[in-house]
Amino acid sequence: MHIPHPIFQPFIDYLKYEKRYSQHTIVSYQTDLISFNDYIIMQYGETQLSSLSHIYIRTWLASLKDEGLSERSINRKISSLKSFFKYYLKRGVITQNPMGKVISPKSQKRLPVFIRDKEINTLLQHVEFPNNWSGKTERLLLTVFYDTGMRLSELINLNRSQVNFANHSLKVLGKGNKERIIPISPELASSIKDYIHDSDTNYPDFPKDFLLHDEKGKQLRPRKVYTIVNKYLSLVTTAEKRSPHILRHSFATHMMNNGADLNAVKELLGHSSLAATQVYTHNTIEKLKEIYKKSHPKA
């Protein structure tokens, strides 16, 4: 099968303009489809889209498994193909979806890694940050991540206008351009207000759009944010993973451990499905086991 751009592009445009997927997600789809395309051409030569059956797809998936690709990665590629063929089935380009006979391998659910609350407290209360613009930005960035549980893309694109100081809340634009409201503490609201005041007073040339800027007044880039989070988390934890998403996991886990309602956590995280949030209940169960062992006379 060859996916020339005239055929391939409508599906990508659909993901971009109708589904409103992020650029990162769209690139993942493209990567998966190109990989499948290359395999089909190499093994079978030019093949029409309508001629593809589940057998072609199964052989590709088997080759990926032989290469040592994880079940999680294989499932992602299956998901990409399902969306791709479903798109063309609805538009009458194909009459049968070959993915109907393709079964996704069962993958072991990975429990979310999180930073313990004592370590978070050490980070935000005792670690010293540089007394300059970079230090102030880094402190606020880490605080917002942990206090709200928002995603990396949501934070770096957070605009001043999305901060409601009167109601102590943030209006966040999440996946698929879905809006949600996240409450914030008076302390965080005060920190944000001080940060904005400092920017306007001492750095009047900085733009007034995005909330967080680097020392040159530019919007923070994802790689820079990763570096900042990794640097500071390495000071307080031995956890192997020290990414912005770990702070999101920590937010959700600590909320659940302190009795938060599952549906409330789902809304705060911006999950479209409750199943995505339920993974955090495992850590809650582990905490209950710990309490049981310490408190029950026969434990």
Main attributes of the structure:
13 helices; chromosome partition; 299 residues; Integrase-like_cat_sf; 2 domains; hpI Integrase, Chain A; DNA-binding; DNA polymerase, domain 1; mainly alpha; globular; three-stranded antiparallel beta sheet
Task: Outline the structure in words.
By secondary structure, the protein is mainly α. The protein has two domains: about 5-100, DNA polymerase, domain 1; about 115-295, hpI Integrase, Chain A, CATH 1.10.443. The protein is about 55% helix and about 5% strand. It has 13 helices and three strands. The protein has a three-stranded antiparallel β-sheet, with no helix packed on it. Helix 2 packs across helix 4, helix 6 (about 135-150) packs antiparallel against helix 8 (about 185-200) and helix 6 crosses helix 10. The radius of gyration is 23 Å and the shape is globular. One of its GO terms (biological process) is chromosome segregation. Keywords: Cell cycle, Cell division, Chromosome partition, Cytoplasm, DNA integration, DNA recombination, DNA-binding. One of its GO terms (cellular component) is cytoplasm.
Number of helices: 13
Q: How far from one another are the termini?
A: 61 Å
CATH architecture of the largest domain: Orthogonal Bundle
The CATH topology of the largest domain: hpI Integrase, Chain A
Domain Tyr recombinase: 110-293
GO molecular function: DNA binding; tyrosine-based site-specific recombinase activity
Protein name: Tyrosine recombinase XerC
Active site: 151, 175, 245, 248, 271, 280 (o-(3'-phospho-dna)-tyrosine intermediate)
